[in-house]
C-alpha cells in the first residue's frame, strides 16, 4: 500500500522534471491511498497550468477525469484525533498541514509514501516510512 501525494500525481499527468521517474515507478501496481485533500491539490496544480498557458481548460478537465480513473482510495475527512496528530507532525517536522496529512496517513496505514517533495520525503524517512522519491 502506498500513500501518494499531489506532487507525484501531477508529475504523472504533466511533463515535469521527474515525470519519467514517476511513470516508471512500481507504485502504480500497488494499492494507492491519499487524504481527501488530494483531488483539490491536484485540481489546483492543473488550474495553475491553465493560467500559465501550459494546458487548455479542456486538457485540465480531461486530466481530472483521468485522475479518477487511477482508482485511488481517498480517506474520509479525519476526526479530531487524527487532525491533532497532523498538527503535531507539522510542528515537529516543519511541514505544512497538507504535507503532514500525507505523512500521518502513511504512518497510520503503515504504508509507503510517494512524493516529490524533498522536505516531506526527509520527514517521512526520519519517521521510518519507506519513500518513493528521486
Could you characterize the architecture of this molecule?
By secondary structure, the protein is an alpha/beta fold. The protein has one domain (2-132): 5'-nuclease (Rossmann fold), CATH 3.40.50. The chain is 57% helix and 10% strand. It is built from seven helices and five strands. It has helices at 6-13, 19-24, 38-51, 57-69, 80-93, 97-109, 118-126, and strands at 2-4, 32-34, 73-74, 112-114, 131-132. The protein has a five-stranded parallel β-sheet with strand order 3-2-1-4-5. The longest helix has 14 residues, at 38-51. It is globular. The two termini are 19 Å apart. The mean pLDDT is 93.
Sheet bearing the most strands, described? 5 strands, parallel
- Helical/strand content category: alpha/beta
CA distance, first residue to last residue: 19 Å
Strand fraction band?
Answer: 5-15%
Secondary-structure element series? EHHEHHEHHEHE
At CATH level 3, the topology is: Rossmann fold
Radius of gyration: 14 Å
Amino acid at each position: 500500500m502506498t500513500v501518494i501525494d499531489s506532487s507525484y500525481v501531477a508529475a504523472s499527468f504533466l511533463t515535469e522534471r521527474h515525470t519519467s521517474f514517476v511513470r516508471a515507478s512500481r507504485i502504480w501496481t500497488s494499492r494507492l491511498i491519499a487524504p481527501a485533500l488530494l483531488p483539490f491539490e491536484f485540481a489546483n496544480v492543473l488550474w495553475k497550468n491553465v493560467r500559465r498557458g501550459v494546458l487548455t481548460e479542456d486538457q485540465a478537465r480531461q486530466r481530472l477525469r483521468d485522475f479518477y480513473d487511477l482508482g485511488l482510495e481517498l480517506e474520509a475527512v479525519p476526526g479530531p484525533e487524527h487532525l491533532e496528530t497532523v498538527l503535531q507532525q507539522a510542528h515537529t517536522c516543519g511541514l505544512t498541514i497538507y504535507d503532514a496529512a500525507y505523512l500521518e496517513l502513511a504512518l497510520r496505514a503503515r504504508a509507503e509514501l510517494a512524493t516529490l517533495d524533498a522536505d516531506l520525503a526527509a520527514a517521512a524517512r526520519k519517521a521510518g516510512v519507506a519513500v518513493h522519491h528521486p
